[in-house]
Amino acid sequence: MDSSNKSKSYCNSLVAYSRRTTRVVNIGGVPMGGTNPIRIQSMTTVDTMDTEGSIEQSVRMIEAGCEYVRITAPSIKEAQNLAEIKKGLRSMGYATPLVADIHFTPNAAELAAGIVEKVRVNPGNYADKKRFETIEYTDEAYKAELERIKKKFTPLVNICKENGTAMRIGTNHGSLSDRIMSRYGDTPLGMVESALEFVRICESMGYYDIVLSMKASNPQVMVQAYRLLVQKLDEEGLQPYPLHLGVTEAGDGEDGRIKSAVGIGTLLEDGLGDTIRVSLTEEPEAEVPVAKMLADRYANRKG
Question: Could you tell me the pTM of the whole model?
Answer without folding.
Answer: 0.94
